Amino acid sequence: QGAVIHYTLRKGSAPAEEALISGSLLTDAGGTAGAVIALPGEAGFYVLELWVGNTRLRRELQVVNEPTTITITAPAPIVAGSGEQTVVIALLDAAGQPVAGPVPVDVSASRGLLSLPPDQRADAGAGAQPAAALRAVAQDGSLALAWLPGTGAGPGQFRVESGTRSAVAGFAIEPGAVAMLQVAQLASTHFVAAKMITVTLDAQLADRYGNSAGASAGQAFYAWRSAGDDTVYSATTTTGAMRYALPLPLLRTEPVTV
Question: Contact 203/241 with Cβ under 8 angstroms?
């Protein structure tokens, strides 16, 4: 003969006698039973209790309102190595109004690290550490996350999921101010008869983190001095990159800062 399992469902803050749903189930010979319990349509926390004799089981459930639209607002422009930025996420219903109540949200960034809002970090434990992906809770349709872009330049995107809805927003991290010249290739060809040497230089302007500065770098000037006669040879670029064939006397040469 099977056992009788009793159950109740009530609001999390309501006393046990104010059950919204109650009933009983009869287990089969194997001691199992199943039932479909329709949860209330109102968002909030609920408590499901089951018991057989003096044995009780309690489970907390959360009913949330699912958004119809998710919007993501990120700062722009963003420069590599920038400090902490704020990313704002809005959850809207079909009428374009903020979704009421707490709603779990999964957020990820293809570049940089995200952090929970200060009021949610205490409850997150180890999950409070900055990460590329995290779960947070939007309150009344709004969530603001801290984002540290990092030092790498390039395109990326944020992705937000809540219930069956998702949204993405692209961003671009731009190189910082020009801070160095990266030499990709420095090759030479020796012409003995002419007593000359041709130096081919492939170089690229970069910021302090090594990101290619590209066309936004502006004009730059480069110069080399012959170690023998102090003759200065120079080239100018306006594109952030340069390839220059330079005839020099057959003497040791060295780059100089101008």
Answer: yes
